[in-house]
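Minutes, methods subgroup
Present: GH (chair), OT, SY

1. OT presented the first of two proteins processed in the latest run. Sequence and structure tokens recorded below as shown on screen.
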Amino acid sequence: AARGAVAVGSRPGTAGSQRPSSSAGTSAEKACCYQCFRQVYASSATRLPPEEEAQASRPSTPATPAAAAAAAATAMRSQRLFCSEACVGRFRQALAARNQREAELSKLRNAVQTGDAAVDGANAPPGSEPERMQLAD
């Protein structure tokens, strides 16, 4: 062998050493804020009260009883964490807007399913059957 040859891919003095872990001395668990995605320590995170968490976790559309039970179990295991009360407030605003939109859509679905002529005629595109019926009168 050649004198002073060094094995390819290794440096002298580093072959057996390991890099220290960045979390070697801490056992604090970090999580992401549900609203803004900032990192926050789980121990200092703000949480929703249980009744609000349950309301926020309910499925937006009716599901089978088994799917609803599975969604409820998942919600109980994974509680939303927030970095501050400001993010909790923004989440509540988004939740209220979602619930309002869901109520509007539900109302429209019911009107379409029951065949409400007032809704159908008012929202009909030009040239459609409801408009032609109104023009014939």
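2. SY then presented the second protein from the same run.
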Amino acid sequence: STQSTWGASVFPATVMFKTYDDEFVPYNGAMNGDEFANWILLNFIPSVSDFNPLYYSVYTKRNLPIIYLLRSPANATHEVSLTRFSSLARMQRFDATWLSVDISQFPEVLSFLNITQLPALILEDPPNPRTTSWNDGEAMLGEMHVMSPVNGLIPKDSMEALLHRYYNGTIEYTIKPETMK
């Protein structure tokens, strides 16, 4: 039946399809108003998206932590971290915005955040952003926690522990916007 194939329980129905091997997401509520708009906002970003600075304001409007994996696609070890990152993102889908950053496209991020090892995992808390100068302009950034690799990888259990510390309110931020270059 159509219902069992697409997961919709009311008709007409809306089903969102994504990339990165995400499953489709059915919407079963009323097709108007804030509930539908919020469903779109929470679901239109795949589990893991490629970072695009043009969409930063969209990421922050979700009012969720932003988790970045900074990596070099040319490095096979970094791709192992991406696989772990993607797996964890699928399990934690609505708790954060998950972004993969190809550092060859944004090399200035390394010096801006004083990152010396890749891959690196960054958790940004955007609900209380501050203005800082960046790339000959200004950016509104939240406090951040940077996790460096262990033996060339970001272990999945370390990623999970970071999320638990964030949601338990025990995370210690290693970078504050006012201290950024």
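Chair's summary of item 2: The helical segments are 2-6, 33-43, 56-61, 76-91, 108-112, 156-168.
Next meeting: continue with the remaining queue.
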